[in-house]
Amino acid sequence: MRLFVLLSRVPYPLQKGDRLRAFNQIKELSKHHEIILCALNDAPIHPKAIEKLSPYCKNIEIIHLSKSNIYFNLINNLLFTQNSLQVAYFYNKTAEKKIHKLIEKYQPEHIYCQLIRVSEYVKNIPIPKTLDYMDALARGMERRIENGSFFLRPFLKLETIRLKRYEHEIFDYFDNKTIISDQDRKLIVHAANHHIAVVPNGVDFNKYYPTDIPKEFDIIFTGNMGYPPNVMAAEYLVSEIMPIVWKTNPSINIAIVGANPAVKVKALANKRVAVTGFVADMNEYYGKAKIFIAPMLIGTGLQNKLLEAMAAQLPCITSTLANNALGGEHNKNIIIAEKPQQYAEQILNLLTDNELAKRIAQSGHQFVKQQYSWENSTNILNELISKPIKNN
After folding, report:
1. For residues 8 and 40, is the Cβ–Cβ distance under 8 A?
2. How far apart are CA 197 and CA 203, in angstroms?
């Protein structure tokens, strides 16, 4: 089947969740389909992007969005429409004409859209379509309101309302809908949200695996450190959790690892807290650490960082919010905590009890091996795309 894949970003490098998901799904889907990749782009393209994507795509089309058009669109939609700004950012009529011409040129048998950001472009095209909501974006936006600045809060509230409306309205334009977890599926406001198929992320076990190298860090936290939920988690870790830990053992150190660290994250760096920024080999840093922690307070979706750390056989501590999507079992393959005191106690337990740490690490590794492979998760998507669409 000729499959037209429409994305809001070029899916390389794999520093953000949507790129990681899209890249690995394209890789797996290319085993069964001819992939025509169409990606919007508003930034310089990584010099190796086309090289990395070409083995899996018959054709790659990139549509550039100018910043001036983006800013005009955002202001226009904010003041004069009820449209979601998340959608408005990525939409313009020139891009729409180009996408329609590409669809006419390639004559795909199915269209696959990742995120509602791009769904406006193809919602009325009479070709079988699948929409990957990926996360419950509106709920993720809503969780940011409480911690947003005084000036930002009204915009977050407004965008939450608009996103909820759009997530609901776009539902019926697509033949199939997918999402990353059951937790997120329930947060899509639609009477038929139970028809959304859960397609979890996987983990690349050739990239993330146990290593036997000297330990440099007691604790590691990873992710895109410009992403608000990660920024908040990093601040919470260093400012709320670690002072309790340091009262018992002041020598314990932390590595906060990931691209694009926000100013707030950089400010956390001190003699006991390393803020690395981008690293070429994340698995090496997992190998350098004794335990992994993801004290997520807000956000939606499945935390790729947890899958990676568990694949690298690190004992992991996280919140109920993050584990609801993952589905780990407390004290078996993962440790769950909520309050700073609980996190601190679990950190100290794992750092002082080697047998406990080893047991959690090994059980977590087996858990992700059994539950989270890109091949198995993309098979769910492939079955949806491949099945005949019933006409109403």
Report:
1. yes
2. 19
Range of the domain at 176: 2-202+374-386
Q: Helix, strand, or coil here: 273?
A: strand
Query: For the chain, how many structural domains are there in total?
Result: 2
Is the same domain home to 69 and 150?
yes
- Residue 371, pLDDT above cutoff 60: yes
Rounded Cα gap, residues 198 and 184, in angstroms = 9
63, part of any domain:
yes
Contact 180, 199 (CB under 8 A): yes
Are 149 and 241 within one domain?
no
228 and 137 share one domain: no
Round to whole Å and give the CA distance between 98 and 257.
39
Where residue 392 falls among pLDDT bands split at 50, 70, 90? very low
Q: State which amino acid sits at residue 355.
A: E
Nearest to 108 by CA among 220, 243, 4: 4
172 lies in the same domain as 295: no
Residue 330: strand pairing partners: 334
pLDDT given at position 388: 83
CA distance linking residue 389 with residue 340, whole number of Å: 50
* Structure tokens given for 66: 């100018």
Full DSSP string of 185-223: HTTS--TTGGGSEE------TTTS--------EEEEEES
Q: Assess whether 362 and 378 both reside in one domain.
A: no
Q: What is the pLDDT of residues 103-113, one digit of tens each?
A: 999 999 999 99
Identify whether residues 248 and 259 lie together within a single domain. Answer: yes
**pLDDT surpassing 80 at residue 52:** yes
What is the spatial distance between Cα 18 and Cα 12, in angstroms, rounded to a whole number? 10
Residue 90 three-state SS: helix
Asked if 296 contacts 303 with a C-beta cutoff of 8 angstroms, the reply is yes
Residues 382 and 364 in one domain: no
Q: What is the CATH number of the domain that holds 221?
A: 3.40.50.2000
Return the SS3 of 143. Answer: helix
pLDDT tens string 247-273: 999 999 999 999 999 999 999 999 999
Total Cβ atoms within 10 A of residue 370: 9
Whether residues 325 and 247 fall in one domain: yes
Distance CA 257, CA 277 (A): 6
